[in-house]
Amino acid sequence: MSNQPDPATRAWQSMRALVLDLHDRRAAVSDAIGMSYLRAKALRLLLPGPLPMGELGTGLGTDAPYITVIVDDLEKRGLVRREVNPADRRSKLVQVSTAGRAVARTADEIQSTPPAELLALTEADLATLEQILRRLVESSERR
């Protein structure tokens, strides 16, 4: 019996190493925007439209008290606005401002820039890789 992990485990380990270990852009995002990565992620989650505070907290994987701290800070910076949720007047909707959109776009641009190793692949390899990864993402989103 081999001690080698199965191909799926090896592929996952390689993807994690590439994205999280070798080319982790969270520090670069924080440096560029002057705030924590979690705040940038909050802004990016708000780009499609306003979210209730609770849903934003769930998307960030954080609890209600900490999401309040994050939204308070973003609001002080003029990057988000809070408004009453018309569907539930007891809750607040958080909406990204124009300035917040610009910050979110900066963060997204930094994170979306491919590393040199990826740019060095052939067009055929990139097409195959993109097709496989897109299928994995679509499959995960359907769950």
What key phrases describe this protein's structure?
3 strands
Q: What is this structure, in a nutshell?
A:
By secondary structure, the chain is mostly helical. The chain has eight helices and three strands; from the N terminus they run αααβααββααα. Strand 2 (about 80-85) and strand 3 (about 90-95) form a beta hairpin.
How are the SSEs placed, and which strands pair?
Blueprint: H1 7-22, H2 26-33, H3 37-46, E1 51-52, H4 53-60, H5 64-76, E2 80-85, E3 88-96, H6 98-112, H7 116-119, H8 123-142
Antiparallel strand pairs: 1-3, 2-3
The biggest beta sheet is recorded as: 3 strands, antiparallel
Architecture of the largest domain, CATH level 2? Orthogonal Bundle
Shape: elongated
Mean pLDDT: 94
Q: Count the domains.
A: 2
The parts where pLDDT drops under 50 for at least 5 residues are none
SSE string, helices as H and strands as E: HHHEHHEEHHH
- Spatial order of the strands in the main sheet? 1-3-2
What is the CATH fold-level name of the largest domain? Arc Repressor Mutant, subunit A
| Quaternary state of the chains | single chain
Give the name of the CATH superfamily of the largest domain: Winged helix-like DNA-binding domain superfamily/Winged helix DNA-binding domain
Helix content: 55-70%
Count of separate DSSP helical elements: 8
Total strands: the figure is: 3
- From the alpha-carbon coordinates, what is the Rg to the nearest angstrom? 19 Å
Regarding CATH, which class of the largest domain? Mainly Alpha
N-to-C span: 33 Å
State the secondary-structure class: mainly alpha
Strand content: 5-15%
